[in-house]
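B., you asked whether I could sanity-check this one before it goes into the benchmark set. Here's the sequence:
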Amino acid sequence: MTEPAAPSGIEIRPLDSVAEVFAASAVLAEVWGGDRSGMPPNLLRALAHAGNYAVGLYAGEEMIGASVAFFAAPAARSMHSHITGVLPGRRSQGLGRVLKQHQREWALARDVGHISWTFDPLVARNAHFNLRVLGTRVTEYLVDHYGPMDDGVNRGDESDRIMVSWALAAPPVPTPAPERVVAAVPVPPDIETLRRDDPADAAAWRPRVREAMLGHLADGLTIGGFDDARGYLFVRP
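And here's what the prediction gave me:
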């Protein structure tokens, strides 16, 4: 993957001090609707101090994003990226990709070959970024993976997630050719706006997408990619 150039004035720094840890926790809380339970400062401090990946994204001296990952089994070769976020006013500037590329280079320097993480299958922009931009591979569909969540983004919804694996030294997984696509599962183009404007319609998408995805997986298909118009693309392995 070609390394994206960070915009002028943007810098990524490790979270070395208590003040930086609290600032990162506050930034991530703002991204997730005001709740610090997703990455409380004490846990973030412990992860950072133990040598895991914990960084802040800065515009000058203002922290505008953060990312946290920890080593996973087998610890010498893999990491799990737990949380990455950029403040709402700074989105759509390529900063998510800059953070992921920094995470990739940090991991490769420590002989890590794979990074995994989860994302909400209803969030089309994340599916596009993870599957089309980064070229990750889907490994699991997880039903209500985290149980009830009380942040402003997930409150009142079940926490279904897609798990992906990013092979850091391999070419990105390509979007499957049209002739390989056996089925597709659509998702709303902007579930976040739909949740605000029409909560009942937004809530109906969760069971609809879950049932369709699990049905195709039970039939032996795999999620081979994502298309902005058609949704998740299923192929035969």
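One thing to flag: The two ends are 24 Å apart (CA to CA). Otherwise nothing jumped out at me.
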